[in-house]
Amino acid sequence: MVNQKIGLQMWSVKEASERDFFGTLEEVAKIGYDGVEFAGYYDVQAPDLKAKLEELNLEVAGSHIPLERLLSDLDAVIKYEKTLGNRHIVCPYADFKSEAEWVELAHKFERIAEKVVEAGMTFSYHNHAHEFRTIKDEYILDFLLKKAPHVSLELDTYWAEFAGASAPEYMKKYKNRMPLIHLKDRLGDESTEIGSGNLDIQSFIHAARENGTEWLIIEQEAFQKFEPLESVKMGFLSLEGMVAK
After folding, report:
1. Among 134, 132, 126, 142, which Cα is nearest to 93's?
2. What is the mean pLDDT of residues 130-141?
3. Nearest to 20 by CA among 231, 229, 235, 191
4. Which pLDDT score is estimated for 1?
5. CA–CA separation, 66 vs 64, rounded Å?
6. Which letter does DSSP use for residue 220 in this model?
7. Average pLDDT of every residue of the chain
8. So where are the chain's domains?
9. Digit-coded pLDDT (tens) for 59-73
10. What's the topology of domain 5-243?
11. What is the spatial distance between Cα 1 and Cα 88, in angstroms, rounded to a whole number?
12. Which residues pair with residue 154 across a beta bridge?
C-alpha cells in the first residue's frame, strides 16, 4: 500500500512567503508537513532552495508552473526542478471557450508531458470547476486527458465536488494516473480548514489510497476566522488524524 504523505500548496500562505519565503518554509516544517508544493520561487536559486529544504527535512511534493512558462521556457523549468529534486510538474490552470482550443491545449500538453516524462518526472494538470463543463457529452477534463495520454491528473477534490461531481467516483477513472491530489474543506461557497466543513474528506483519502496517490496536498484559498499559517496548521492536524485511520 502506498505511503500517503501530507503536503502544503504554498499558495495557501503566499503573503507570508512574499514577506519571508525561507521563514515561512520553516513554519510549515514546524507544523509537521512532509513536504511542500510550490507556486513560485521568489527569485531563489534551485541549489539554495534545495539546501534549505534538506535542512528542514521537507520533501518537494510538486510545483505549479504557469502554462505560459511551460510553453516558452520548458528546458529551464526542467533543469530547475531536477536540481531541486522535484518529481512532479503541474500546470495549475487553463480555460478556453471552444472545443478547438481545448484540442490545441491537449496537443501542447502532450508535447510538454513527453519531454517531462523523458526527464524522469510526471506532468499533471490541476483542475478547477470549469473543466466539469462538457464537450460532446463528456467532461472537458476527460476530453483533455483522453487526447493527452501522457498527462497525469492532480485532482482538486474541492473543485470537483463544487462542480457537482463525486471526487471519489471520479478518482476511479484515473487509477495510477493521479500521483497528487488537492484537499480543502467547504463551508458555504468557500474553502475552509480540513475538518471544519461539510466535505467527506475521509472518503477522498480512502479513494486516493486505492488509486496509489502518494501526496495529499492541502490548498486553502479562503480564510474566514484564522490567519493562513494557523489555518493550514489546523488542516494538517485534522488530516493527519484522518490519514491514520
Report:
1. 126
2. 97
3. 229
4. 59
5. 7
6. -
7. 97
8. 5-243
9. 999 999 999 999 999
10. TIM Barrel (3.20.20)
11. 20
12. 126, 180
